[in-house]
Amino acid sequence: MKSDDRLSAVLHVLLHMAQVDGPMTSDQIARMMHTHPVVVRRTLAGLRELGWVQSAKGHGGGWKLACDLDRTTLLDVHRALGTPSLLKMNPLNERPECAVQQAVNVALNGVMRDAEALLAARLGEVTLADLAADFRQHMAAHPFPAAKRTHGH
């Protein structure tokens, strides 16, 4: 099963937006994220509805960050994406009448609920400002040419 990397990708984009003074176009973001501009526009449109980003059309337009980094948590971003599953582990359901399979599924489902609750709680403790500070600290500790600072984007 393919993992869901939307949370990581959106966090990546939001942190880049926090580092630039002007707007970023959908094309710029798409090249940076190795995706299509339509995917960028669709994703950021949902964040615009929440007031987290702003957009302007035309020359000099693009996407700008509008949320408060100190008040926006990773859990907030996760929820903005529709709260996709944080963990990917699906119990077997090939023989639902099997008592062994039922016992295994009950145990796994309970563990998964507990693990997701713990992960969600931790995501709620980390803000975008925390990530931005970690990024700046990493850049100060590991300086390299400006062209490679943001891995080519």
User: What class do helices, strands and sheet pairing give?
Assistant: mainly alpha
Tell me the overall shape: elongated
How is the main sheet built?
A: 2 strands, antiparallel
Described by its quaternary structure, the protein is: single chain
Give the proportion of residues in helices.
55-70%
What name is given to the CATH topology?
A: Arc Repressor Mutant, subunit A
* Average pLDDT: 86
The succession of helices and strands, N to C, reads HHHEEHHHH
Task: Describe the overall structure.
This protein has helices at residues 6-19, 26-33, 37-49, 74-80, 99-123, 128-141, 146-149, and strands at 53-56, 62-65. By secondary structure, it is mainly alpha-helical. The chain has one domain: Arc Repressor Mutant, subunit A, CATH 1.10.10.10. A two-stranded antiparallel ribbon has the order 1-2. Strand 1 and strand 2 (62-65) form a beta hairpin. Helix 2 packs across helix 3. The protein is elongated, with a radius of gyration of 19 Å.
In summary, what is this structure?
Helices cover 56% and strands 5% of the residues. The protein is mainly α.
Break the fold down into its secondary structure elements and pairings:
Layout: H1 6-19, H2 26-33, H3 37-49, E1 53-56, E2 62-65, H4 74-80, H5 99-123, H6 128-141, H7 146-149
Antiparallel strand pairs: 1-2
Helix pairs in contact: 2-3
List keywords for this structure.
153 residues; mainly alpha; Arc Repressor Mutant, subunit A; two-stranded antiparallel ribbon; 7 helices; 2 strands; 5% strand; elongated; WH_DNA-bd_sf; WH-like_DNA-bd_sf; Tscrpt_reg_Rrf2; Rrf2 family transcriptional regulator
